[in-house]
Each structure stands twice: as structure tokens, then as C-alpha cells.
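worker-03 picked up job from queue 'complexes'. Input manifest follows; two sequence lines, order preserved.
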Amino acid sequence: MCGIVGLFLKNEALRPRLGDMLTDMLVTMTDRGPDSAGIAIYGDAADGLKMTVQSDDPGTAFAGLAEALSATVGKDVSVRVLDTHAVLTLPEAGEADARALLAGRGIRVMGSGHAMEIFKEVGLPRDVAARFGLRAMGGSHGIGHTRMATESAVTTLGAHPFSTGADQCLVHNGSLSNHNAVRRTLSYRGIHTETENDTEVAACYITARLADGASLGQALESALDDLDGFYTFVVGTRTGFGVVRDPIACKPAVMAETPEYVAFGSEYRALVGLPGIEAARVWEPEPATVYFWER
Amino acid sequence: MQTIDLAATTLRELNAALQGQTASTNQTEWEILNPRGAHALAVGLDAPIEVTVRGSTGYYCAGMNKQATVRITGSAGPGVAENMMSGTVVIDGDASQYAGATGRGGLLVIKGNASSRCGISMKGIDIVVHGSIGHMSAFMAQKGNLVVLGDAGDGLGDSLYEARLFVRGAVKGLGADCVEKEMRPEHLEILRDLLARAEADASPEEFRRYGSARSLYHFRVDNASAY
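worker-03 finished. Artifact:
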């Protein structure tokens, strides 16, 4: 199964409430995916590069990390620890050195960019949201996922969203049938996945298309040709938010739009708490049709 | 009028109360508040009662309905009125995928649009959709009538048995073994009756009829090796 939620704000005044609204949506989707949960949230752009990192032993891994990174990079690096994750802010020029240091300490990079932060863990969505303090987070848009695993193990790395490019993330309800072939094709271009997960391949595919110069809309259009299987994808970029369903469209999807926001839910239940939902335009996205919004 | 607010009552209590009604009940009118997209609302009813759900519902609302009239003032999630036996289900908004699937009797009216697989494997139910329907609707439909005032998506009536399909708008594509058929007087009569009962403002003469070419479901000795 799996549950997806997404919220793209059009009204700036709602930004402080983004995490609160997304948390309610995410928790409502618990029975679609109680294995693990995750969220990618686009907050204020950092002065430099934001990297979200994760460790199974955060107490040890994050101790003295800011000092070590600052010494390596040669400038101040800030480290904000949230449970098993930490958000680093560093000068862009220091990215390669920082990644080398993190790899040496066994710290995983979950995602990077200027605005996006990404948090995902094994556990009930309610507990995962509480561990990261998701409710208190603000931002312009965000997507979340509750996972019922089918294609790979229940692990932190197997949870969604997947981020394979700067400020890019993807969540998926369904299963891909040609992910091994696509993974192989991408590897010829030097794009490598970290897990056996089918969704990570889709994220890498979108990242590759965007790197080729495609717009988010074009990347999603070509995904319809190249990715086989069942999918409802919701994709986030620094300025955009996109949705696409496979042509069979078994996996459920409901969207709502008001002058204040665009919202996505695997079910209408996820949207009922949103302000003004009674007056929203609510519809089911068409199969094999790309929807995206850019600010 | 019995009013049940799902903000204060559990789904299980609601369904138990509705399923507890008998043919002789004097509690014939029910109103359900705050459905908030809940699953399996008002399922398995078997009494001549009228139930109005104020709002939108999740999966499988009014499934297995017998005798009752269920009206949803919002939109319905997947599988609404699945396997309905008799009675009437009316949705003021849209219906998600496989509305009326496997239904054996009764009338399902969708005032908005229905998405994919509407009436899949229907076995005697009548379905009237005021708007359009999605792809693979009436797949393997065996019996009953599917009436669509708008357009039909791709693969309409694929592997159809003996259900009748009436479409006023455009059909994007017919499925395997589904063909357009002659509209005879008896079909116009069926349509006139269904349109009136579904409060649909349309004339039977505006529709085209589709049905099975009957080339798939008869045994053919040429295909014996495939069985």
C-alpha cells in the first residue's frame, strides 16, 4: 500500500503552519504505511549549502561534528541535531571535503540543497514526526510518505522520500517492474543508487532528466515512457511540486486546490483537516497525466 | 430523523445501528455527519431506510447494499456501492475507481464523474453517471445497464458479457470484443426509465449503445490448446 501526502503553499502567511498541517496529513495515512515514515520540507534558503545527514548512533557520530567539519572546510559549519538526523549548513565550496569526512565517520547523507531538509525513520508516522519535531517546522512546500514495504527491507534508507539531487525529492506509492533495467542504464551514465529500492531508481531517473535540462514537467512526462509498473509519484524541487500516476492508475490519489494551497493525499481522509477544504476544488488526478506547480 | 455524528460515534457503532434496522423499522431516515473520508460507511444495510451522508466518503461506502437508499452529498472514494444487491445509492459529487463493481442489482447514480473501472464485472446493477467515466469501465461486465451522459475513457467494455452500455458523449476507445450496437425501441425504453429515476436531464435518442460482439466468451475449438 503506502500513503503519500503533499502540500504546496500559495499563501506565504501559511508558511509557519506547513509542518503542523503536513504532520496531521501524514499521521492520518498511518494505516496505509505503518512501517516507516519520512518527510521532505522546503524551508528558508540557507546562506550556503544545507545537508541533512543521518546516523544510527547519533550520540557518537554527531559529537564534535561541527568542529571537525569547520576545521576541514576552513569555515564555520553549523550542525542542528534532530534525533538521528542533523542538518548541516556549510559553504558550497566545502561540499566535497564535508562528504569525505562524513563518509569516514559512517554518517549517511540523506539529501542536500539550499532549501530542502529531509527526515525519515522506521516507526509509526506519529512517532517519527514527534522525534524530528516536524510540527514546528515551517516552509513553502513539503511531501511526506508512510511506507508499507514491498520491494525492499524496512530500513531508514529504504524509507521515503528519496533525494538524489540538490533540493530534489520523490515519494512513491506502488512498485516498479523495470527498476533493475533502469538502474543499469543510469549506472552507465555514472549515476549510482545506494539501495536495492525501486523508488530510489525513479528518483535517480528524474534527477538525470533534470540534469539533462528537462523541466520538472518534461521529466515526469518522460517517466511515463521509461518507467514501468505501478506508481503514483509526488516530486518536490526547490520551486516546484509535481504529481504523476501510471496509465493503469490503481494507486489512489486525490488533489485539492484553493487560492491558499495545492494539496495531495492518497485518500481524501488526509485532506479533511486543511483550512477551507470544504470550498476547495477536489479531484482525482487523471492517469498518465502530469500535474506540476512552480512558484 | 436519526442523526449520527461520526465526531462522537465510532464507525462500528454507526454500522451496527444501521445494520440493525429491519423491514418494519420506524426509524426510516438517517443522517450521518462528519464522515471525513472514512472507509466502509453504511455497508451491509438490509432495510428500506434512507441514509444521507453529509460530506465525502472513503473506500467502499454503501457496499453490499440491500433495499436501503444511501445518498452521499460529497464525493465517494474507491469501490462505492461495491457488490450492491438492491436499493439505491446516489452520489452528488464524483466517484473514485471501481464504483458499483460486481453489483448484482439496484441503482447507482453518480451526479459527477466516475474514474476508472466504473461497473467492472457488474452483474445486474444499473449505473447512471451524469458526468464522464474513466478507462476500463465495464470490464467483463455481465449484466445490467451502464448509462453515461458524458464521455467514456479508453478500453470501454473490454471482454464484455451481456451488460448494456449507453454513452451520450465520446468513447475514447472500445475494449476487446465491445462493439457499437443498434439502438432498438426496447433499449430506448430502458434508457428513458433509468434517466428519469436518476434525475438525469437527457433524451434517450442522444445515446449510442455498446455491447458484446460475443466472439470472446464462446468456446472455440481453434483455441483449445490455450485452455
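worker-03 released lock.
The radius of gyration of chain B is 18 Å.
Chain B has a mean pLDDT of 96.
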